[in-house]
Design goal:
The protein is an alpha/beta fold and about 150 residues long. Helices cover about 25% and strands about 15% of the residues. It contains 4 helices and 5 strands. The strands form 2 sheets. It has a 3-stranded parallel β-sheet, with helices on one face. Helix 3 links the parallel strand 3 and strand 4. The protein starts with 5 loop residues before the first helix and ends in an 18-residue tail after the last strand.
Length: about 150
């Protein structure tokens, strides 16, 4: 889900270099590399997601999900991935702390703008869908489109 901007683009490059077959589901706003199956649709609409109906994947990498419904809707059409769902969450789910390091047992901020990502992780656990979630803070590097440099 995604794969044509920043983190997703870097991941696609890495996966292709290792010989993986990829299907990208995007809105079609950016080019995709040669040799990649490209499904163009909007994950926020039933008409867009219908392209996923009946498709099964070994793994689903979701770099663009922001709410529980984003992931629920994908799984509704594809079923659980055969192996694992890789989910890009956010460290923004955690409540404020002066104690570091923070780990998965740390409290969640119920007012976080990233709460939907935490709800997604909880739902994946509840449904026993094998997943790995990454909770990065700020990601910096080539292709960055967020002006986060001032934070450093």
């Amino acid at each position: 889900m995604g794969g044509t901007r920043f983190v997703g683009k870097a991941l696609v490059t890495r996966l292709l270099s290792r010989g993986h077959s990829l299907t990208l589901f995007t809105r079609g706003n950016n080019p995709v590399p040669d040799g990649v199956e490209h499904l163009i649709g909007d994950r926020l609409t039933e008409d867009g997601l219908i392209l996923l109906k009946g498709r099964r994947f070994d793994a689903i990498v979701d770099t663009s999900g922001r709410s529980l419904n984003h992931t629920k809707d994908v799984i509704k059409y594809t079923g659980s991935p055969k192996e694992r769902l890789l989910y890009v969450s956010s460290a923004g789910v955690y409540s404020t702390s002066n104690h570091f390091p923070i780990d998965e047992a740390h409290g969640v901020d119920p007012q976080s703008r990233h709460l939907g990502k935490y709800e997604t992780e909880s739902w994946l656990k509840e449904k026993k869908i094998p997943f790995t979630s990454f909770r990065p803070t700020y990601i910096y590097g080539p292709g960055n489109y967020n002006s986060i440099e001032s934070w450093f």
